[in-house]
Amino acid sequence: MQDESGSCNLRLEGEMTIFTAADIRERLFAPLPRCQQIDVDLSQVSELDSAGLQLMVLAKREATILGKEIRFVGHSPAVLDVLELCGLTGYFGDPVVMARGDQK
Q: Which domains does the chain have, with CATH numbers?
């Protein structure tokens, strides 16, 4: 969905894994030609593996090359776990809200 300012919202649900990588890649990259800014809601992502993480990195890089912005928002616990495990919580520059019990 795109608004008048060129911003789009995308919600990813379920697994972001090697098994869903082709579909996720298509969904992440489809709005790039028409949207200046894309907010990707990850609140309903149930599983994230290295393939899903690589797609996030690739989408961020591609958006930057095109002079656009992609932001990952609403990180699910599964996404937060992987970002923390890989030391990438701050890499994307997106606001990350940790659950109160998960803060260190």
A: 7-102 (3.30.750.24)
The beta strands (E) that lie in 1-104 are given as: 7-16, 37-48, 69-73
**Cα(91)–Cα(11) distance, integer angstroms:** 20
Whether this model's pTM surpasses 0.70? yes
pLDDT by 10s per residue, the chain, length 104: 555 567 999 999 999 999 999 999 999 999 999 999 999 999 999 999 999 999 999 999 999 999 999 999 999 999 999 999 998 888 877 666 655 454 44
- Strand, coil or helix: 94: coil
